[in-house]
Amino acid sequence: RDKQFEETYDRCRGTNHRTKKRCGNVCLMDYIGPRPAYCAEHVHLDPDCWYQKCGVSALGKQTKPCKEIVLKEFGVCSKHLPDLLQKDERFATTNALAIQNTTAFLDRVTELSNQHRNEANIARFGDQELFQRKAKAITKYHTMEEALNRHLRRLRNEPEEDSEEEEESEEEDDDSDSS
To answer: Which residues contact 8 (CB under 8 A, 6 or more apart)?
Structure first.
């Protein structure tokens, strides 16, 4: 490995269970809260860490548990959030409490998304690797925001917003009719 890389980033405090040697991976680098002392593989060993692996294990067609690293307060990754919203009682029912819980979740996701955007703008010209990590996280938060907004509209019995693709296809249909 590159010596500068070794000096710049902290190594994981975990140990390999087969070789009993210290893990050589880098600690989680894109984080919020206290700096993690473990890599993604060993994140469960850190009681003070704000992160965990996605809580979805072998749902439906999936045979292996999801390994995405997520904030403990969320519990699931952006890919499994729609399933959580449909099946968890806190979000699935159509009462005021479900709307309140979903709105609070959306507010937190939006807050963290904005924080990542600000950090990405700062890192854009200084640390390209950090910028790329933040940009990747921003897309995941954006996906979560969209899922939460769709779920809120369903809870409030509001009509679904038409996507841009549907509007474009309707415009093309109109153009072909006039010919």
So the answer is: none
Assess contact for 137 and 116: CB atoms under 8 A: yes
User: In the chain, which stretches have pLDDT less than 50?
Assistant: 1-2, 4-6, 58, 163-170, 178-179
Q: Given phi > 0 = left and psi -120 to 50 = alpha, else beta, which region is 9?
A: beta
φ/ψ (deg, to 5) at 120: -65, -40
Distance CA 68, CA 77 (A): 6
Task: Provide φ and ψ at 118, rounded to 5°.
Answer: -60, -45
Tokens 């955007």, located at residue: 117
109 three-state secondary structure: helix
The span from the CA of 87 to the CA of 85, in Å, is 6
What's the rounded Cα separation, in Å, for the pair 71 and 56? Answer: 13
Q: How far apart are CA 129 and CA 118, in angstroms?
A: 15
* pTM summary value: 0.72
Q: Whose structure tokens read 């692996």? A: 53
